[in-house]
Amino acid sequence: MNQSRRRVLQQLGLGLATSPFGGIGLGPAFAQDSAYPTHAVRVVLPFSAGGSSDVAFRVLADGLSKAWGKPVVVDNRPGAGGMIGADAVAKAAPDGYTLLATLTNLVMAPALFGKAPYNAQRDFAPITELATLNLAWVVHKDLPVVDVKSLIEYAKKQGQPLPYGTYAVGGTGHLLMESFGRSNDVPLVHVPYKGEAPLVNDMLGGQVQIGIIGPANAKQHAGRLRTIAVSGVSRSPLLPGVPTFKEQGYAGLERQGWFGLLAPAGTPASIVEKVSADVNKLMVVSAIRARMAEIGYVLVGGTPASFARTVKSDERFWKDIIAASNIHLD
């Protein structure tokens, strides 16, 4: 985390950095505007329960519930590369009681599917970029693959496209793997899952032998799944012994996706700013930071305006990548 961002988070979370999460003494720093929230807040997560994004957001949801004194309910709505859940939020009342916690898929899906039911910039009000995450390229332990070079060699010996799984159609892992295949002349076939948990289960059972998952699951199942590389500009804190693709001589997989919180467009700015400020306060609670690190997320934080710029920039970046790759899922 850069120093300016650290200062912002420390200012937002004044007095919270040493607060114990078990006792969650969030009192004065979370002084409430009586107008919001007055009842439960529903946060739609467009992926199945049990994946890294689900586990990570439930940590924050629990913190918000305790800070606000109102339930924060996580509603898993997987399917269509995240579009089903995102569309539900885009059409929800813009009153702050239905929010969206999602991944970079939000800006990828419209370009991939062509007929997406929402527009990422028009239909949402960005609240906060929560975190970024390395992605782990894993293989079943019985596969004769130990690094990226041997993966390429193995794939080219098969005489047919190599199946690989990801936990979202058109997600960061899917697009990066397709880009990798084209750049290295590796024939691939994508096996999409509606979430990370079912993908991991099938990998453990040998139904699919190559997959892209979060670093926490890769670490947890290290005895049965072998991690051969991670995406991103640097190694995952959870997998310090696993080199990046670039370290192994394969550039082009440095881009990291984000995990962020958004509201329907038209949500009052006062609510957007309040939710953003309160989420940022949670990010400096030591117990929350430790739990998020265990999951493999690198916390980001920041203002609605800064996240809006990220959404705009990434929508353009991935749209260009998708067009150049000629990937269409409609």
Itemize the secondary structure elements and their pairings.
Layout: H1 3-12, E1 41-45, H2 52-68, E2 72-76, H3 83-90, E3 98-103, H4 105-113, E4 124-133, E5 136-140, H5 148-157, E6 162-166, H6 172-183, E7 188-192, H7 196-205, E8 210-213, H8 215-220, E9 225-230, E10 258-264, H9 269-282, H10 286-295, E11 297-299, H11 304-325
Parallel strand pairs: 1-2, 1-3, 6-7, 6-8
Antiparallel strand pairs: 3-10, 4-10, 4-11, 5-8, 5-9
How is this structure best described in words?
The chain is of the alpha/beta class. The protein folds into two domains: 192 residues, Bordetella uptake gene, domain 1 (D-Maltodextrin-Binding Protein, domain 2); 113 residues, Periplasmic binding protein-like II (D-Maltodextrin-Binding Protein, domain 2), CATH 3.40.190. Helix content is 39%, strand content 18%. The chain contains eleven helices and eleven strands. The strands form two sheets. A six-stranded mixed β-sheet has the order 2-1-3-10-4-11, with helices on both faces. The protein has a five-stranded mixed β-sheet with strand order 7-6-8-5-9, sandwiched between helices. Helix 6 links the parallel strand 6 and strand 7. The two termini are 38 Å apart.
